[in-house]
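Extended Data, record Peptide deformylase
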Amino acid sequence: MAQQDTEQQHSGVLPVDDEGFVIDTENPEEREAAYRGRGTSRPITVVGNPVLHKECRDVTDFGDDLARLVDDMFASQHTAEGVGLAANQIGVDLKVFVYDCPDDEGKRHTGVICNPVLVELPAERRQLDESNEGCLSVPTAYAPLARPDYAEVTGQDEKGNPIKVRGTGYFARCLQHETDHLYGYLYIDRLSKRERKDALRQMAENEPRYPVVAND
């Protein structure tokens, strides 16, 4: 993907650096508070709900309805004390996720990505991190999952501008995890059968700390 030209660089919701990646670490507290202050928290859909197990629709309308959805997603993420939330996690079949996530250096990243696509990394850049992973849609369950410790995602912001986002460590895991959601994958789908069963057992044995949508 070619670097954005000068006009594009200054038309987006967030500024970009010299390589065309969004700068999502400036004033994250104020931006997150503004989003959720306008939004309404919604309950979280959990594993087994059909909306979580299929690819979502592309975002094509970047108007007021999307803006309200994004606000509600930030409010819902805050209520659930999450660091990332995909639209299908509140029952909406659209390719958009929000994030408010630290990286391993303690920098807080806050933003919105519509129609995300993970960039395929060359083998020499795939250093795996086997940290524990959890999911708001599999409440109270955790399992180690190997993922690259660096990620790049292309997509659009909530106004439809093309963007690129990159992250390392925990934030890289967040970018991969949330993109997975929008293509119908939960992190437990990447576990062995035994590990998946253990994660579902953890979920069954504990109560979520936030409102969820019960599956019929």
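Summary. The longest helix spans residues 64-79.
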